[in-house]
Design brief:
This protein has a single domain, classed as Cytochrome C Oxidase, Chain A (Up-down Bundle), CATH 1.20.210. It is built from 15 helices and no strands. The protein starts with a helix and ends in a 12-residue tail after the last helix. It is mainly alpha-helical and 542 residues long. The chain binds heme-as. Heme-as (HAS) binds next to helix 6, helix 8, helix 9 and helix 11.
């Protein structure tokens, strides 16, 4: 990656890891509060910590890391950024950073204790919503920069398929742009006027629906950059080839189509939405599982083909040929492995009857600590081991490689205890998002306590793992020996089918996506507006 472009990527990654550190402190403290081990000093509240944890890790760490990584991928595969794309990269960065700072300060001042989902009628200071708006607008500006770079490449290379990485980066940003329309509408037209007191009521059901219109594709915005690594980077690291360029592109297109009109699967238990519309969106939810199954297939095929090239025999001989000692492979691989139970948990959540059991329990918290906080986070760490030294002109040393393997193992151990306990105690009925309580020493609530202690133990191990990761990041950025670290990009297997060019027909895909969204949302949204319940004055926090 060109040095000038690399600075955009590096700045994003730096903010991401600062957010990871702060968010982790909040996470550690909250598991201790939840299990009754400590009481917070100085009037700090459990829900305040939970908001900081969710916003800093779920929104800030991910968004900054992703946009930094995507910028590096676009620059690496389509050449030095155009002036316009470079400027957009910086403008987007500053808008997001200013927005994040405002939002974080509001949370720390206890003026925005509304959790990362900021459901009405919980009401934060208007500045919290203004900060969020700046983050979203900043991400749009970054996205436009990437689209410009991609369009410039396409113009200069008429009739050719774009480099796979740049296609994937564009698909991820297209998904993000369509998804963030929902959160932008609710924040601009509902939350900001309501929190300033210009209107005294808010349509709660509509605001939650607009949030989940955004909230579900948000999880695929987290996942797709990890898939970029799994599809394109991992084949190179294991000495293999990308199984099929066309299959990878098709998987990304399916995410653009099916990840948005599915928000109701977070609202299955919400009254006020006709079950027919919930049913339709659940069917679409099962459609969005398909590209992940395709990904699993492609990964197994990649591993097997690479292993056989190296002389592996038998059904599972390829397993031994994988580079287990290379953290650039090992960390994302553990992410993939854990994505199997994590995805199964998602399918449980999405099943109507099972959702009645798990909704709003710690089972859901367990699910997303496996998906985003393990599959995605470990892959982002896996990327950092080569991306940071690549951008700073340094190398990944064998000492850091070993530390990285320890970091990954610690993470998996910590998550085994924490997420395992969350899944189990969730099935026993323990609610999510509740500060320490024994419900008047009720026997059922008391039976949850050992699991909550296991969560705290897991949380403590994870905190140590995060400290180790922060050390590794600082080392790679400032202390590692100078040199050249490869930006691994796999070549496509020569036996794969040629990529059909219609896969890059964005007008078609955005059009189909719009039709699906209109089908899934128009009638229920009109219903919500026409039959709006009286609304609520909200619970002010300041
Ligand atoms: Fe989810 C709730 C359904 C995937 C994140 N999810 C959440 C929340 C978050 C989240 C943050 O239907 C909580 C939101 C909140 O605060 O309330 N989720 C799904 C489904 C999938 C899914 C169907 N979720 C994700 C991903 C996330 C994520 C990905 C983050 C990155 N989720 C739900 C539902 C809820 C929900 C309901 C609401 C629950 C409620 O009631 O509140 C699917 O996309 C999952 C498909 C995945 C697979 C796995 C494929 C496996 C692969 C790995 C292959 C491994 C290899 C290596 C090759 C089918 C690709 C193995 C090698 C060997 C040698 C063995």
């Amino acid at each position: 990656v060109n040095r000038k472009d690399g600075k955009i990527a590096l700045s994003h990654i730096a903010v991401a890891f600062v957010a990871l550190f702060l968010g982790a402190i909040a996470g550690l403290l909250q598991t201790f509060v939840r299990s009754g081990e400590i009481e917070l000093p100085a009037g700090i509240g459990y829900y305040q910590l939970l908001t900081a944890h969710g916003v800093l890790l779920g929104l800030v760490f991910t968004t900054f890391f992703i946009i930094g990584f995507l910028y590096s991928a676009i620059s690496r595969t389509t050449g030095t950024l155009t002036n316009f794309s470079n400027k957009s990269g910086w403008l987007g960065f500053w808008l997001k950073t200013i927005g994040t700072s405002i939002t974080t300060v509001m949370i720390l001042l206890n003026k925005a204790t509304v959790l990362y989902t900021f459901y009405a009628p919980l009401q934060a200071s208007p500045w919290f919503y203004i900060g969020l708006t700046l983050v979203v607008v900043g991400s749009w500006v970054s996205g436009i920069g990437m689209f410009h770079q991609y369009a410039t490449w396409k113009k200069a290379n008429k009739g050719k398929a774009s480099p796979l990485m740049s296609f994937m980066a564009v698909a991820t940003m297209v998904l993000w742009l369509i998804a963030t329309i929902g959160v932008a509408v609710t924040v601009l037209f509902q939350f900001i006027p309501w929190s300033f007191g210009w209107v005294d009521k808010i349509n709660i059901l509509l605001s939650r629906t607009l949030f989940w219109y955004f909230g579900h594709p948000l999880v695929y915005f987290w996942l797709l950059p990890a898939y970029m690594c799994w599809y394109v980077v991992i084949p190179k690291i294991i000495g293999g080839k990308v199984f099929s360029d066309a299959l990878a592109r098709l998987a990304f297109v399916l995410f653009v189509l099916f990840s948005i009109p599915v928000g109701f699967h977070h609202q299955i238990l919400e009254s006020g939405i006709d079950p027919v519309w919930k049913f339709i969106q659940i069917v679409l939810t099962f459609m969005v599982i398909i590209p992940s199954l395709m990904t699993a297939f492609a990964l197994f095929a990649t591993f097997e083909l690479a292993g056989r090239e190296k002389g592996a025999k038998g059904l599972f001989g390829w397993f031994k040929k994988l580079p287990w000692g290379d953290v650039r492979f090992f960390a994302p691989f553990m992410g993939m492995l854990i994505f199997i139970p994590a995805g199964a948990g998602g399918i449980i959540n999405a099943s109507n009857q099972l959702n009645q059991v798990v909704h709003n329990t710690l089972f859901v918290t367990g699910h997303f600590h496996l998906t985003v906080a393990t599959s995605v986070a470990l892959t982002f760490f896996g990327i950092s081991y080569w991306l940071i030294p690549h951008l700073t002109g340094r190398t990944l040393t064998s000492k850091i490689n070993k530390l990285g393997i320890i970091q990954t193992v610690l993470w998996c151990f910590g998550m085994f205890f924490m997420s395992g306990a969350m899944h189990t105690v969730g099935l026993l009925g323990a609610p999510r998002r509740t500060a320490f309580t024994t419900y008047g020493d009720h026997s059922v609530a008391l039976s949850w306590m050992p699991y909550q202690t296991a969560m705290a133990v897991g949380g403590a191990i994870l905190f140590v793992a995060i400290l180790l990761m922060i050390y590794i990041v600082i080392y790679l950025a400032f202390w590692s020996p100078k040199g050249y670290e490869e930006y691994p990009i796999g070549e496509v297997n020569e036996q794969a089918e040629a990529t059909p060019l219609f896969l890059e027909n964005w007008k078609l895909w955005i059009g189909v996506s719009a039709i699906l969204i209109i089908l899934a949302y128009t009638v229920p949204v009109i219903d919500m507006i026409q039959n709006a319940p009286p609304g609520s004055p909200g619970f002010k926090l300041w």
